[in-house]
Amino acid sequence: MDKEVGFHDKINVSEEGNKNPFFIMEIEHAPKNEDLVTRNIHRHPFYEMIFVTQGELTIEVDFKKHFVKEGSILLFSPLQIHHPEKVTKKYTCVLIRFYPILFESADFLKDISVFNYDLISLNEEYFNKCKTVLKELIEEFNSDLPLKNIAIGNLLKNFLIALQRSIPEDTSEKSVEDVFSKFNYLIVENEFKIAKPSYYAEELRISSRSLNDITKRNTGFAAGEYIKSKTIFEAQRLLCYTSLTVKEIAYALGFDDVAYFSRFFKKAANISAIEYRKEFLSNNKVS
């Protein structure tokens, strides 16, 4: 692998250190060279959103390509791989980055489901509502007013609530969706490590049977299989976009036995971890 995926942990690249839990900026992107794009393959430890206000772009997120047009918003949970494609047309967007510490209650992100989606397309009503809140967020971020982070946290909550309300909701599914959102949040917090359903059920204060039923209702898979699929997916990301050895990946994902991890991966992917990496690199030039 010539160059592994970048890990960009600076929430504001123009600021020394990582002092702020929030960053927002309106950006205009013009066409650029392909070699500049490939260097942009990266992941973050924070949440990120790209709100497209004019134009369009194409981006690959965790092996899935998205065509993003005006009035849409991309949402990235921590550690997701971003792979922008060559910019062929000018587009304008608002970039939002934040850490959960910004909110007074750490449970807020568990109570919304927007980060279960990679892409949300807004109708005109919610597009205008979100633009209004983002304008206030930009003004607050660029101010030196007292209680600035508290104000930003409240405005960001309003923005995320507007996004949540833009998603059609079946009220009969609300409690199920809430639990499933919290389940996904915890999987990310646990860095996709292999774990038993009982671990998450205990964290969610529900029975393992209830977690299994809710997961099946949302995905068609039992909770244990869903957890394994998330672990396998992270293993694939690490194999494709980092130079970590199979042993290092196994340990990073909570496996004490590398041989067991190898069998686990091969059973799920129908190919060994080493061969999976070789096949990906032969078909995709990561430089």
From TrEMBL:
The keyword Transcription applies. Coiled coil: none annotated. InterPro entries: Cupin_2 (IPR013096), Homeodomain-like_sf (IPR009057), HTH-like (IPR037923), HTH_AraC (IPR018060), RmlC-like_jellyroll (IPR014710). Keywords: DNA-binding, Transcription, Transcription regulation. Residues 181-279 form the HTH araC/xylS-type domain. It comes from the Bacteria. SUPFAM superfamilies: Homeodomain-like, Regulatory protein AraC. One of its GO terms (molecular function) is sequence-specific DNA binding. This is HTH araC/xylS-type domain-containing protein.
